[in-house]
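Record type: ASSEMBLY
Status: queued
Input:
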Amino acid sequence: MRARARFLTPLALAAVLTTAACGESGSSGTGGSADSGGSAAGGDACAPVAGDQLVVLEDDQQLQNADNIIPAVNAAAAAASPALLEALNSVSEVLTTDQLVEMNAAVDVQRQSAEDVAAAYVAEQGLDAGVSGGSGPIVVGAADFTESQVLANVYADVLTAAGFSATVQTVGNRELYLPALQRGEIQAFPEYLATVTEFIEGDDATQVASGDVDETVAALTPLAEQAGLVFGEPAEAADQNAFAVTTEFADSLGVSTLSELADACGDGSLVLGGPGECPERPQCQPGLEETYGLDFASFSELDAGGPLTKAAIQQGEVSIGLVFSSDGALAQG
Amino acid sequence: MLSAASTMVLAVDAAPNPWFDPSYVSGNWDTILPLLGEHVRLTVAAVVLGTVLAFPLALLARRSRWLAGPVLGLSTLIYTIPSLAMFAFVAPVTGLTATTVLIGLVLYSLVILVRNFLAGLQSVPADVREAALGMGYGRARTLWQVEVPLALPSIMAGLRVATVSTVALVTVGVIVGHGGLGQLITGGFAANFYRAEIVTGAVGCVLLALLADLLLAWVGRALTPWSRGARS
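Status: finished
Output:
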């Protein structure tokens, strides 16, 4: 009985919270003045508006580093079989952030297995056709979060279709898997362009990655060569810092990019939510202020793109919050 | 980049997330079975290798007090290394292989095995040993035919504890991707707290530990029929 009561309490609490959020979304319609049409409105034009659906405002001035999905391959394995990179590049050709969001949502929210989601994606996109020339075993590495698991399985399925016998091995973190990739214990890995570039470069003080995909690839190529790695083509899909608002908020102001938001919210009524380090990080609050000229009324300390931040945006506690661009929560219902 | 965890109010319909879900087990049997196999293989290999190493160490420790201190001290010292740190130390040498996990598991099993083997050997009454020597038994024969059988209850107790603790420790191998059922536990956490997956891994470990313990208890009973006779 006692254990049962303990289980039920959080459930009841969650139910109350959910209903509370619903009530708020109905009553807070006054939060944004409708169709302020991009001009700086006075007062509380950019106060939070509650809503269930989150939408990312486009980073049109490339404040964030380009963390596009890019296949990382062991140099010796790539040299031994050109079919390896060819097959992985065929994934990069079609993969978009929206598809990534959908696949993350299928695993994280709809509780499908990463293997099934990957197999369905490969079949749907026809990625298993038109690849060939592979042979021998390939181990695809995967980090221990949903997106990496799904992508590694997509890679493995495509490589299997190309004639390799591919398996997926989960490895906790980059400090372990990147050396393993260099040694050839694993041969392929779905990487993130800017993050892996900075990791291989090694020096925290110097920034070689940027918001520009081509420039970052150009910086990465010689670094990778020294490290015994080869990278394929970057995909359109990216998982990087992004700033999300509710669709209700975006619609009421008529904004879809951060620049438009800056134009619409000159009155300093924006409330920003994000991780504790956001006010110091150049790609968070200072970047938003300097690059876009945004002006914040206050900052609310939450988490790094986690449940706290997302719930705060949805419940109308913050106007705009830091999320990751491929988060399953961004899936359109 | 980081985990794409998401909870609470979401636009797409969230599937129910119960703690116990038999359909998860039946639907993912193909994933669970190889992990279970790896878990069993690692546990058995670690305990067997641990025994092979611990037995001579226990004999060495028995020979003199001067040796007992360092042998027991070293095995205890190794046990105090956090398991995550241990795998992180070993991984650069042996790579992302099951060997990395195995080395850690064997080293951890030593502290339990050496102590129990030593306690068992020391519990052999001195007059029994002298009687054996008096009957013309050589050293090796005394060890195998007199001392080891008498030390069996303590040896089996050590094996049981070491096996159960190894079953639990295998799960830490997830950091190099060879964590047996531990893959399910961390996999469930990573997949936005998928409870059925976490519980499957955790309950699987518990059942495996219980089963191994029962099996060893039964082996112990079969090997020491005299202790049963004495009790009844």
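Annotation: Confidence is low (pLDDT under 50) at residues 1-11 of chain B.
Annotation: Chain B has one domain: 30-224.
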